[in-house]
Amino acid sequence: MNSRKPVNIAELRRMRAAGEKIACLTCYDASFALLQDRAGVDLILIGDSLGMVIQGGNTTTPVTVEQISYHSKCVAPHLQRAFLVADLPFLSYATLERALDASQRLMQEGGAKMVKLEGGREQAAIVEYLSVRGVPVCAHLGLQPQFIHKMGNFKVQGREQAAAEAMLHDAQVLAQAGADLLLLECIPAELGARITAQSPVPVIGIGAGSGVDGQILVLHDLLGISPQVTLGHTPRFVKNYMAGAVAQGEKGGVIEAAIADYVREVKSGAYPAPEHCFETTVKR
């Protein structure tokens, strides 16, 4: 049974040191905030994924600071334990001043306790600028949805050795700049484990293998109701926990049971299984 003591950065570091996996999910409203907090989710992200699963768009780029702040404000008052992180949307951190202004809004108005931004070593100055001013930062490497129009499509990152080494270096630079947390998306499991082994801060993965310190999924993917899952384009790393809860004959609180099953499997290491992980094509 999880302690009801609120999770903070020190607790996330303690969990990493103790080898306890960190269970994370996205959330966008009060009802699911209550369910997730009660089910034992350690960290909740107000993701710009809301642009796709809530607004029905094809990318995250149209999402605004105002929208992230609104959804964060819906979630924050209903969390007794879970640590709340909010995404900095596309171009909201293009300059130091804009990054600070957006972070101030998400923390003061939205109630977030940390902000997340995408990008590698080129974001180090922004991470440092925010960090020394008391803004906790989660850095996001690997597949970066805000860069989709630059990347061209959603695909696994870091499969080539040069790209893998660059990402490993980026992770170290961002941590040195003051990032308190690192999120890795859609990278080979081997690379996820390497980055985690060398990282001084906790590492959360989504499609980054089992060798990271914790896992995160988009809530609607976990429940099997996101547009991409509904249309049959399920990402490799997604597991439908709602289907499992229904199959087990859960009554009444089937959604909460699905979330609790996810938390248990993250904690035990059962998720992600090998079928949810990406392999590298680089031969060493």
Automatic annotation (TrEMBL):
Q: Which UniProt keywords apply?
A: Cytoplasm, Magnesium, Metal-binding, Methyltransferase, Pantothenate biosynthesis, Transferase
Tell me the pathway: Cofactor biosynthesis; (R)-pantothenate biosynthesis; (R)-pantoate from 3-methyl-2-oxobutanoate: step 1/2
Q: Which residues are involved in binding 3-methyl-2-oxobutanoate?
A: 48-49, 87, 116
Which reaction is the catalytic activity of this chain? (6R)-5,10-methylene-5,6,7,8-tetrahydrofolate + 3-methyl-2-oxobutanoate + H2O = 2-dehydropantoate + (6S)-5,6,7,8-tetrahydrofolate
Q: Which GO terms describe its molecular function?
A: 3-methyl-2-oxobutanoate hydroxymethyltransferase activity; magnesium ion binding; methyltransferase activity
Q: Which family does it belong to?
A: Belongs to the PanB family.
Methyltransferase listed as a keyword: yes
Q: What is its EC number?
A: 2.1.2.11
Instruction: Give the cofactors, semicolon-separated.
Output: Mg(2+)
Report the principal subcellular site: cytoplasm
Q: Where in the cell is it found?
A: Cytoplasm
Question: NCBIfam families annotated for this entry?
Answer: panB, PRK00311.1
GN (gene name):
panB
Gene Ontology biological process: methylation; pantothenate biosynthetic process
Task: Tell me how the cofactor is bound.
Answer: Binds 1 Mg(2+) ion per subunit.
Q: Which residues bind Mg(2+)?
A: 48, 87, 118
Enzyme class, spelled out: transferase
Assembly with partners or alone: Homodecamer; pentamer of dimers.
Function comment? Catalyzes the reversible reaction in which hydroxymethyl group from 5,10-methylenetetrahydrofolate is transferred onto alpha-ketoisovalerate to form ketopantoate.
Question: What's the name of the protein?
Answer: 3-methyl-2-oxobutanoate hydroxymethyltransferase
Report the active site residues.
185 (proton acceptor)
Looking at the keywords, is Cytoplasm present? Answer: yes
List the GO terms this entry assigns under cellular component, sorted alphabetically: cytoplasm
